[in-house]
Write a structure and sequence with these properties.
The complex is a heterotrimer of chains A (415), B (335) and C (287).
Chain A: H1 2-8, H2 12-34, E1 52-55, H3 57-61, E2 66-67, H4 73-81, H5 84-96, H6 109-119, H7 131-146, E3 152-158, E4 164-171, E5 174-175, E6 184-187, H8 198-234, H9 236-251, H10 254-265, H11 272-282, H12 285-299, H13 302-309, H14 314-350, H15 363-372, H16 385-409
Antiparallel strand pairs in A: 1-6, 2-5, 3-4
Chain B: E1 4-16, E2 22-34, E3 38-42, H1 49-56, E4 64-73, E5 76-77, H2 83-89, E6 95-98, H3 112-123, H4 129-142, H5 159-170, E7 177-181, H6 189-204, E8 210-214, H7 218-224, E9 227-232, E10 235-241, H8 242-247, H9 252-258, H10 301-305, E11 311-313, E12 317-319, H11 325-333
Parallel strand pairs in B: 3-8, 3-9, 6-7, 7-8
Antiparallel strand pairs in B: 1-2, 1-4, 4-5, 9-10, 10-12, 11-12
Chain C: H1 3-10, E1 18-29, E2 36-47, E3 51-55, H2 62-70, E4 77-82, E5 85-86, H3 92-99, E6 102-105, H4 109-112, H5 119-129, H6 137-150, H7 155-158, H8 168-182, E7 186-190, H9 198-215, E8 218-223, H10 226-232, E9 235-240, E10 243-249, H11 250-255, H12 260-268
Parallel strand pairs in C: 3-8, 3-9, 6-7, 7-8
Antiparallel strand pairs in C: 1-2, 1-4, 4-5, 9-10
Helix pairs in contact in C: 5-8, 6-8, 8-9
The chains are: A mainly alpha (415), B alpha/beta (335), C alpha/beta (287).
């Protein structure tokens, strides 16, 4: 036993898979300690806030300021105001107006603004341009005119009599230290379509998905193992009946069966555990078949015959003399079942047949939400890409562990 | 004295386990086989006799590693050659190797003639199919095998027939030395006799010059080979002619081994079998002294700590024991 | 003739009570065209305390016969009598009762042990099976030590060891220790020495003979090695293609064989005092 473990941890593949998997599990455990709370809480209004650090403007305005004179502050401000999109639109306008843009550098903000002042005509109605586009250029012009227009921002508050009264003036050289601002929120993966913190949701979803995979794996392995052991060891008519059932389950595509069962259950009945059980219930055939074939070859081993001669009962022979021999094999099958259970849940949820959406997030549900709200077309990569990455990593690590175990336990693959 | 066909000088090889431990499976083995002679190696399972066969062919694929010593085939030293090189230039033309399960090496879906084409083309790529077939038919006829076998598939042949076919195929290029590692142990006595008969024909007709025969069955070895070496824990403990070894063994281990021979001949029922208690030493850490000392009933304290060299005696015989030949014989006769 | 040989040659078992006998025992595999008759209407009488060898080449049906004798498979036809009465192993309970009287040692020591059970567990199991569950720990240990001493193993060194840590010969000896504890009426040994080396083989054969002498059990020894059968047995049955072609006292069968098959078998085995005649071998034949 000790030697087997030593061999298992000698396999670089198993160790790599194990390290990745343990890292994911640790993240699942540790992250909520630092960032507790309901992962489904909608903290944002509106969809898909970008990843980054959010500073409360309200608090910042009331925070003590320091003065910093930074030489490139003005330029940065102008550059930040003109997005890449705006620059493309400006170049489009220049072309329509017939300006010479042969040696224009779009990154050179000063040159762009100078040319804009020269060419922009609010009354111009270029042919074929929609009103919306014309209005867009008007807004763009206003924004450009505002750049550098005022050196200060004045904050006014209503006093007791309901009259606005100047309370503070913010200069362009005023800075606040984020440490002094009462509310700063870092969202490493932004928010999703409902305004939830994606990272928090992802950590919770990973946990749920692994649990679903484990339940599905346990259900599939228990059913498959029981059927395989009985069919293989007892044989005869019991073998015929079990193999008949197994063959029926094998020829029906299990995913279709899965869809039909989950659909007939209805949205309200589908908790994570129910979905996991259903997944397990449709994927045991593979385990059953392979356990059966292993048991048939073990059944005629001399130690089983001797155990029979010693008068041991069927249950004892199966548990003591057969199960230990196929244990490594069953563990490997179980790992694969967990991996495929996680993937099956993702597939189901993507189709909208996953667990109830109000209780817990799962990796599949996150993908489903991202897809429904077109995260993939509007460039909100943070809503789906980390989910795909985690699913890939989990099933990659589980499969690596499985291959590693196979190398240890399957003598034909040993190098 | 005939020409030396195969000479092994102080050969040492080791296995490296999965946990990077060294197992010294062949530890300083030397012997010669002359032209027209056959040599047998006897010993219990795990004594290194099969490893010695692989080592002698230069077949060093992990976990087997070459350490030191020389292997000289017909004057050509092949030690230190790259194992792939050995496979291309030595196997089949210089040495042929027949393992116990050789018959299972035949792909059951191919005709026998295809294997012969493979073997011949590996060394003589220019030969065309007609020439090879003519060559094979002639060889099969001379060995008394039915030429019809050439167009059969391996599944159609019985175990003994398959084994004989493999031997015929692997000696088609007239290798100088044939190494047979338990070639007949998996067969019935009748098939075994046929395999041996064929190997003898190969020798008599000069297709192979000399033969090395490895088996744990001593009566078989006695009937097949001219000389016998007894191997124990990676070393040769005694060497002599077949007759001397069976009827007059000197080393306590050979004595025990020969005393355990069982044949259906009068007198066997009353004999006392030479049982040796215990198990061979662990070759990861071979003992400093005599390797057999732990199990030897004649061992003294000296045996456990003195390293014992090969001691020549009689007419070209050798043994590896601290005690003198006469002393040992006296002990045996007193029993 | 040595004393040992005399003692063993003189024993006559024909007047001893019958232990296991068979009348027209047949085993057929498959149906119709694919029917194979593995054991073909064999009759046999094994007496109490007799050491019987069944000799045959591979495919002669000796292993099939042994499975039937052990009650691990049922005969297609014929009757097996246990201690003079027809054997009834219809139910699990009756089978278990029968197995108290017959035990086996198999060919491959490496597959005869459950590799996940320690040596002591194997032996303890035997004591429990013989109704020794209530015994004190010390009594059990004494019994196990005695059994190990019988086969020249040191029990103290074996505790906490797994069978695969022993050599093949030691494992087979442990098997004999198991039989020593179980003390069945009949021991069926199916080629117990074919996978161990010559020196261990001698030890095991001696132990089997001692076991028979000490407990008076019937030993049915199945082997392909006719020299070994001659050395060890009182009675030899020669089996060819599912039939017994010859049987009788070891001396008669081996030294003066009557059946052509026995003669061929004996002439094909290499010997050390007689010339092994290879001249009659016809390589054209496919045996």
């Amino acid at each position: 036993m000790k030697n087997t473990l030593r061999q298992v941890f000698h396999s670089s593949k198993f160790v790599a898979g194990f390290v990745i998997f343990v890292a994911i599990i640790l993240m699942m455990i540790i992250y909520p300690l630092f960032n507790p709370g309901n992962p489904l809480e909608q903290i944002g209004v509106g969809t898909f806030a970008k990843p980054g650090t959010y500073v409360s403007l309200y608090d910042a305005a009331r925070t003590k300021t320091d003065t910093l004179r930074l030489p490139d502050a003005a330029d940065n401000r102008i550059a930040a105001a003109l997005t890449d999109e705006d620059r493309v639109a400006m170049v489009e306008w220049f072309t329509l107006m017939g300006a010479d843009i042969s040696d224009l550098d779009t990154a050179d903000t000063d040159a762009m603004i100078e040319l804009w002042h020269e060419t922009y005509d609010p009354t111009a109605r270029p042919k074929g341009m929609t009103n919306a586009k014309i209005n867009y250029y008007k807004r763009l012009n206003n924004a450009i005119m505002d750049l550098g227009a005022a050196d200060t921002i004045t904050i006014a508050e209503y006093n007791d009599e309901g009259v606005l009264e100047e309370s503070k003036t913010i200069l362009d050289t005023d800075y606040v230290n984020t440490k002094n601002v009462a509310n700063v929120k870092t969202l490493p993966l932004g928010t999703d379509n409902f305004g939830r913190d994606v990272l928090k949701e992802l950590v919770s979803a990973t946990g749920t998905s692994i649990r679903i995979g484990l339940i599905a794996g346990i259900v599939a392995t228990v059913i498959g193992l029981t059927f395989g052991l009985l069919a293989g060891y007892v044989g005869g008519w019991l073998d015929d009946i079990i193999m008949f059932i197994t063959n029926i389950f094998t020829v029906i595509p299990s995913f279709v069966l899965l869809i039909l069962i989950t659909y007939s259950l209805g949205q309200e009945q589908r908790g994570a555990a129910v979905v996991a059980t259903v997944i397990g219930f449709t994927s045991w055939t593979w385990t059953a078949r392979s356990v059966r074939s292993q048991v048939i070859s073990l059944r005629n081993r001399d130690h089983v015959n001797l155990s029979k001669l010693s008068g041991h009962s069927l249950v004892r022979i199966v548990v003591m003399d057969i199960l230990p021999y196929i244990a490594s094999y069953v563990v490997m099958a179980f790992i694969l079942q967990v991996s495929s259970g996680i993937l099956a849940e993702a597939q189901l949820s993507l189709l909208g047949l996953g667990p109830k959406t109000t209780q817990v997030p799962t990796l599949g549900l996150m993908m489903n939400w991202a897809m429904l709200y077109s995260a993939h077309t509007n460039g909100s990569w943070w809503a789906y890409f980390p989910v795909i990455l985690i699913i890939t990593l989990i099933s990659f690590s589980l499969n690596l562990m499985n291959t590693g175990l196979d190398q240890v336990f399957n003598p034909t693959l040993r190098d | 004295m005939g020409k030396v066909m195969l000479e092994v000088r102080n050969l040492k090889t080791k296995y490296v386990t999965r946990f990077h431990e060294d197992v010294y499976a062949v530890d300083g083995v030397s012997f010669k086989i002359e032209e027209g002679k056959s040599l047998g190696i006897a010993g219990e399972s795990g004594c290194g006799k099969s490893t010695l066969a692989l080592s002698m062919m230069g077949y060093y694929f992990p976990p087997l590693h070459y350490m030191s010593g020389d292997i000289i085939i017909d004057g050509k030293n092949i030690s230190g050659l790259d194992p792939d090189e050995v496979r291309k230039t030595i196997l089949g033309t210089e040495i042929a190797y027949i393992p116990q399960a050789a018959m299972n090496a035949l792909n059951p879906t191919q005709k026998i003639i295809r294997f012969i084409e493979d073997v011949v083309r590996a060394h003589q790529p220019k030969k065309d199919k007609k020439e090879i077939r003519a060559m094979a038919e002639q060889r099969f006829a001379e060995l008394g095998l039915q030429p019809g076998t050439l167009d059969k598939h391996a599944v159609e042949l019985s175990g003994g027939m398959k084994q004989r076919t493999v031997i015929a195929v692997s000696t088609i290029l007239n290798p100088k030395v044939l190494i047979a590692d338990e070639p007949s142990s998996a067969l019935d006595v009748t098939s075994q006799k046929m395999v041996i008969k064929m190997m003898r024909e190969l020798m008599e007709k000069g297709y192979i010059k000399s033969m090395l025969f490895i088996t744990h069955e001593l009566p078989l070895l006695y009937n097949v080979t001219d000389d016998i070496m007894v191997m124990y824990a990676g070393q040769i403990v005694e060497k002599g002619t077949a007759k001397e070894m069976v009827f007059d063994p000197v080393h306590p281990y050979s004595h025990g081994l020969m005393g355990s021979i069982l044949v259906p001949e009068e007198g066997t029922r009353g004999q006392k079998l030479g049982a040796i208690p215990g198990a061979p030493p662990n070759l990861k850490k071979p003992p400093n002294g005599c390797r057999f000392a732990e199990r030897c009933k004649y061992a003294t304290a000296d045996c456990r700590y003195t390293s014992i060299p090969e001691k020549p005696f009689g007419d070209g015989r050798m043994y590896r024991c601290l005690k003198g030949v006469d002393e040992l014989k006296e002990v045996y006769s007193g029993e | 003739m040595s004393e040992m040989e005399k003692a063993r040659a003189q024993t006559d078992f024909s007047d001893k009570p019958l232990c296991l006998s068979g009348r027209g025992v047949t085993k057929v595999f498959g149906f119709g065209d694919k029917k194979t008759v593995a054991v073909d209407h064999v009759d046999f009488d094994f007496h109490e305390g007799e050491f019987v060898s069944i000799v045959g080449e591979s495919g002669s049906g000796k292993t099939t016969l042994s499975k039937m004798l052990l009650g691990l498979s049922n005969q297609t036809e014929g009757e097996i009598l246990f201690q003079g009465k027809p054997r009834d192993i219809g139910t699990g309970r009756k089978k278990r009762e029968y197995w108290k009287g017959i035990q086996a040692i198999f060919q491959d020591p490496f597959s005869s042990f459950n590799t996940f059970q320690k040596v002591d567990a194997v032996l303890l199991d035997c004591i429990n099976m013989r109704g020794g569950k209530h015994l004190s720990k010390q009594e059990k240990t004494d019994m196990m030590t005695e059994a190990c001493n019988f086969v020249n193993l040191k029990f103290a060194e074996l505790t906490n060891k797994y069978p695969f840590e022993l050599s093949g010969g030691q494992m087979q000896r442990l098997m004999i220790a198991r039989i020593f504890l179980l003390k069945p009426k009949i021991l069926l040994a199916d080629e117990p020495t074919s996978m161990v080396d010559a020196c261990s083989r001698a030890t095991i054969l001696d132990m089997l003979l001692n076991l028979r002498d000490e407990t008076g059990m019937t030993v049915i020894f199945i082997t392909h090695d006719i020299g070994l059968a001659y050395y060890i047995s009182d009675t030899v049955y020669i089996m060819e293609h599912g039939k017994f072609v010859e049987f009788g006292k070891a001396d008669e069968v081996i030294l003066e064989p009557k059946a052509a098959y026995t003669k061929r078998l004996i002439s094909d085995v290499p010997k050390i005092h007689e010339e092994w005649d290879l001249s009659t071998v016809d390589l054209k034949q496919d045996a």
